[in-house]
Amino acid sequence: MIYRPEAVRVARFLQQPDNAPALAAFVAAYPAWKAAIGDTPATLSALASGEPGAYLDAHVAGWRKRVMCAFNQDGACTIYEVRPITCRGAHAVDTSERCNGASPVPAKRANFVPLDQFITRTRALLKATHHAIGGPRGRLEALPNIVHHLLTRR
Predict the structure, then answer these.
(1) Which residues is 141 bridged to in the sheet?
(2) CA 13 to CA 139: how far, in whole Å?
(3) pTM
(4) φ, ψ at 15 (rounded to 5°)
(5) What is the mean pLDDT of residues 37-62?
(6) What is the band of 49 on the pLDDT scale with cuts at 50, 70, 90?
(7) Are strands 76-77 and 72-73 parallel, antiparallel or unpaired?
(8) Res. 84: pLDDT tops 70
(9) Which helix (H) or strand (E) holds 46?
(10) 62 Cβ contact list (under 8 Å, min separation 6)
(11) Confidence (pLDDT) at 76
(12) Domain ranges of the chain
């Protein structure tokens, strides 16, 4: 779940000729991702500005669907260079097996205070820019959904 400026950056990255394989992989993976993830993004978007506990519960329920990101290709992130802030803050220190909802044990997270502080300050700017470029007020969006929309709009 991200703010729109990050999706714009990813869409522009995918449109560069050098990134044609990543774009093709995303376009191919998106329909299956969308079908598998279901209404989780809409639920998370609706809960994002509400009670943190309800959002966390919905996030965990979505995670347990075991749906890998639409930008994951054979275990590698195809947009790593331009990954959103939320992905940059995920400092998983375990094997990738713990990053999937089938694992009864979630991945451990390493805290890095300077990066965590930077991310917190950056979110306010992202939110303001999100609103300025037409993102839904106070609502996060699912990265694959908005990138797909940006890439396919006429």
Answers:
(1) 2
(2) 23
(3) 0.80
(4) -80, -10
(5) 88
(6) confident
(7) antiparallel
(8) yes
(9) helix 40-47
(10) 37, 40, 43, 44
(11) 86
(12) 4-152
- What are the distances in angstroms from CA 119 to CA 7, 115, 123, 127? 17, 6, 6, 12
What region, left, alpha or beta, does residue 66 occupy, with left being phi > 0 and alpha being psi -120 to 50 degrees? Answer: left
Through-space distance between the first and last CA atoms of the chain, rounded to whole angstroms: 24
Instruction: Say how far apart CA 71 and CA 130 lie, in whole Å.
Output: 21
> For 49-58, b where at least 16 C-beta lie within 10 A, e where not — what string?
eeeeeebeeb
Contacts of 70 (CB under 8 A, 6+ apart): 26, 29, 30, 33, 34, 144
Residue range 34-60: average pLDDT? 89
Q: For a pLDDT cut of 90, what percent of the chain falls above it?
A: 40
pLDDT of residue 103: 66
Residue the block writes with tokens 């995670």: 63
User: What is the residue whose two structure tokens read 């451990």?
Assistant: 108
Tokens at 3, concatenated: 């703010």
Q: Which residue type does 90 have?
A: A
Average pLDDT over residues 110-116: 77
pLDDT the model gives residue 82: 94
